[in-house]
Write a structure and sequence with these properties.
Layout lengths: L1 E4 L4 H12 L5 E5 L4 H4 L9 E4 L3 H8 L5 E4 L11 H21 L4 E6 L25 H13 L9 E6 L1 E3 L12 H12 L2 E4 L12 E2 L1 E3 H14 L4 E5 L5 E2 H12 L5 E4 L3 H4 L11 H5 L9 H11 L8
Parallel strand pairs: 1-2, 1-4, 2-3, 4-5, 5-6, 6-11, 7-10, 8-13
Antiparallel strand pairs: 9-12
Helix pairs in contact: 1-7, 4-5, 6-8, 8-11
EC number: 5.1.3.20
Protein name: ADP-L-glycero-D-manno-heptose-6-epimerase
Function: Catalyzes the interconversion between ADP-D-glycero-beta-D-manno-heptose and ADP-L-glycero-beta-D-manno-heptose via an epimerization at carbon 6 of the heptose.
């Protein structure tokens, strides 16, 4: 049995699909299952059992010996959430409980961290664990993720294999339910489809021209391939970056979206909202050397190829992965 928490969500549901495609059908999915739009992500997938996240630890105490692997992707992922107690409970404390159960039942663990832990990148985007205590996240969500990372690397008792993955800007199918927290590609597709044009945030930093703010965009299919690799690797426990390793501009992204939609480019700029302007990241890029050093040699999907696949095979037909 393989457990996926946050299984009805964006990355979780894509991971279930990847596991099914590789012949793994004894999947235990854990989530709240109270969002019908989100639950559509799991339709047609081969699942052994669905467990409410509030019942997960009770369930695990009855079958822990039979669980082969846990992917903990469930979290409160809204970066605009400012209830620190809620974030601590959902993101930090819940993950600590999973960690402790993995030690108790000898279960290997992969969990979701976040590139939000890097803040403005004062220490770069290098997944050197010595830097983790120094990082200054920009919001309570990033703090909750970094708090767990800081805790994990100081534990004397650890699961026999564990990996934390600092997801960068993940995009791809199964994010229809995410609303404003969906990827820029999905927002661009919807805006272009509706108006024929796309508005991007203007740069308020003299070092960057309008639209040339840069992010590390990583396709969700690559993300789940890394998860699958780690499920079989089961050594070199550590925290790893998970991006494409190549920063690209928002202009690159939007132009790729227009091209995939076969529409003429029409791009304009609007001011970045004042309330987020001073916390706006102008550049992120994952240093991927650490993951590659343990044997993950697969090339990451280019932004153009990822956007084309996402737009043509999913967004334009409202299909799921």
């Amino acid at each position: 049995m393989i457990v996926v928490t946050g299984a009805a969500g964006f990355i979780g549901s894509c991971l279930v699909s990847k596991l099914n495609s590789e012949g793994f059908n004894h999947i235990i999915v854990v989530d709240k299952f109270d969002n019908e739009e989100k639950n559509k992500n799991l339709e047609g997938k081969r699942i052994l059992e669905s467990i409410d996240r509030d019942d997960f630890f009770t369930w695990l105490d009855t079958v822990g010996e039979k669980v082969e692997f846990i992917f903990h992707l469930g979290a409160r992922t809204d970066t605009t959430e400012f209830d620190k107690d809620l974030l601590s409970k959902m993101n930090t404390e819940y993950t600590k409980q999973i960690w402790e159960k993995c030690i108790q039942y000898q279960i290997p663990l992969v969990y979701a961290s976040s590139a939000a832990t890097y803040g403005l990148g004062e220490y770069g985007y290098d997944d050197n664990q010595e830097n983790i205590p120094n990082l200054i996240p920009l919001n309570p969500y990033g703090e909750s993720k970094n708090d767990f990372d800081k805790w994990a690397i100081t534990q004397e008792q650890q699961p026999f294999f564990w990996a934390g993955l600092k997801f960068f800007n993940v995009y791809g199918p199964n994010e229809y339910h995410k609303g404003r927290m969906a990827s820029v590609i999905m927002h661009a597709f919807n805006q272009i489809d509706k108006t024929g044009a796309m508005k991007l945030f203007r740069s308020h930093n003299p070092e960057f021209k309008d639209g040339e703010q840069m992010r590390d965009f990583v396709y969700v299919k690559d993300v789940v391939d890394v998860c699958y690799f780690l499920m079989h690797h089961r050594k070199d426990s550590a925290i790893y970056n998970l991006g494409s390793g190549k920063a690209r501009t928002f202009l690159d992204l939007v132009k790729a979206t227009f091209k995939a939609m076969d529409k003429k480019e029409e791009i304009s700029f609007i001011d970045t909202p004042a309330d987020i302007r001073d916390k706006y990241q102008y550049f992120t890029e994952a240093n991927m050397a650490k993951l590659k050093s343990i044997g993950f040699t697969q090339e990451f999907t280019s932004l153009e190829d990822g956007v084309e696949d996402y737009v043509k095979n999913y967004l334009s037909t409202h299909s799921y992965y």
